[in-house]
Amino acid sequence: MAHSGINVLFQGTNFARLMGGLWTSVWIAGLSLIIGLLLGLIFGMLRTLHNRVIRFILLLYLEFFRIVPTIVLLFLAYYILPRQFNINWPAQWMAVLAFSLWVSAEFSDIVRGALESISKHQRESGLALGFTQWQLFRYVLLPQAVRLELPATINLATRVIKTTSLLLTISIMDIIN
Fold first, then answer.
1. pLDDT in tens, 54-64
2. Cα separation of 35 and 128, whole Å?
3. 66-88: per-residue pLDDT in tens?
4. Shortest CA distance to 81 belongs to which of 59, 96, 60?
């Protein structure tokens, strides 16, 4: 029992450093989810409009974030983006940027799917009442879509939390300190 691996956690500052890393992961994931869900909601709503150009651009955006592995996104955000655009943000904020863009792309597809799965009669009823497009989204479509989005949104949130472990692999040492 004296040689248990659990004892390593409590030697020196190991436990405090691990808790600091946990806190960093939680706030990066939390802030990324807040930003990404808000952007994704807007993008998802835009993807249901009949404007082909907007829908095509947002589809490219979604497919880019689906095709490119998350580790590559982190490398782009931390190493390439700052050099190309002269951005001098701390490592944590570059991680928030990468995760937020990824979440917004994924959530836009969840929102689009939920909105398009709502019965056509619901949309037509709102328009018959004289609702504007914004009122239709606000009072008819989005309240119904929330229930449909919930399982996929929880899945996305857990993926973001788990994926923050990749921050260590790109050698952002101040992420865990």
1. 999 999 999 99
2. 34
3. 999 999 999 898 888 888 888 88
4. 96
